[in-house]
Amino acid sequence: MLKNKTLLVIFRLVLGGLFVYAGVVKVLDPLEFAQNIRNYRLVGQSLSFLAAVVLPWLEILAGVALAAGVWTRASALIISGLLVFFILLTLVTIARGLDVECGCFGALSRKSGFGVILEDLGMLFMGLCLLFAPEKRNR
Amino acid sequence: MADDALSETRKIVRQVLVIGALGVLVGAAVRFPLVKRFARGEFRETFLSPADYPGIRLITLREAEELWAVGEVVIFDARPERSFREGHVPRARNLPATESKLKIPPDVLELPRQRTLVVYCEGGDCQSSLALAKRLNDEGFRDIRVMTGGWEEWKKAGLPEEAGDAEK
């Protein structure tokens, strides 16, 4: 369990900030993001649309909460859950031999592959540290 | 101590649900017009908004066959090179349009922008013909038709095919 407070604050700001950024670029163009989801060829048209409407906001809300230190564990749990899902999704995509853009950071998007998984693992590490960090006294 | 852990877990679950519900509400509220269009039946086939991509239209196998028979159109096969070599619509040109890399060759860019272009990919839920169509639209082409049934439907209908590299 990580106990260094400064490091945990840095993790919170970095991870929260990354998720807010990732959410905002997706919010700007929901149809493009819906197409990104559809390109993974895992879910149909309707589910892709609904996910494109909701998912970015989930990222933004959890990211803001985490960065602000409000409901830290809940937001770290959501973010870690999303990351686990992204990692599995990327693995499945690699296994199926699909050439898909990850759709993760808007203009910074690149081919869905092991690089993306590595980044996700890095973020997941921060998320889990925050999720299991020792509890604050006097909440 | 165990009670503490349990109530902490409950609290976290509650907060997760609140954030989740908030995400749904905010998303639906911010994109209300889009959600309304979806509820009316839009976006069931593609996520193209006609306003964003005025040059793209979806067509059926029949329309594609007619266009092909007349022969005035340029046909693009968006599938990977290997699939193309195994068989494709006669006179089609291979422009593999996997989502992450797609370059339109210079001679295609020299075509008149009003020229009718037909694009297709595997069929089923393949998305590369759409990716190609969007790129062509962004290059200024104004009559791009996506054969949504793709190669699968063309082959199944027993229409003529061609194999090999052809006019790569």
What string, H for helix and E for strand, traces the elements of chain B in order? HHEHEHEHEHEH
At the first level of CATH, what is the class of the largest domain in chain B?
A: Alpha Beta
The overall average pLDDT of chain A, rounded, is 89
Major beta sheet of chain B, specifics? 5 strands, parallel
Oligomer state of the chains in this structure: heterodimer
Tell me which CATH architecture of the largest domain in chain B applies here.
Answer: 3-Layer(aba) Sandwich
CATH homologous superfamily placement of the largest domain in chain B: Rhodanese-like domain
Give the end-to-end Cα distance of chain B, rounded to a whole number of Å.
Answer: 71 Å
Percent range of helical residues of chain B: 40-55%
One letter per element, helices H and strands E, the order of chain A comes to: HHHHH
| Protein structure class of chain B | alpha/beta
- Report the span from N to C terminus of chain A: 20 Å
Share in β-strands of chain B: 5-15%
Global morphology of chain A: globular
Structural domains of chain B: how many: 2
The total count of helices of chain B amounts to 7
* Number of E-type strands of chain B: 5
Strand content of chain A: under 5%
Keywords:
heterodimer; A: 139 residues; mainly alpha; 5 helices; globular; B: 168 residues; alpha/beta; Oxidized Rhodanese, domain 1; five-stranded parallel beta sheet; 7 helices; 5 strands; elongated
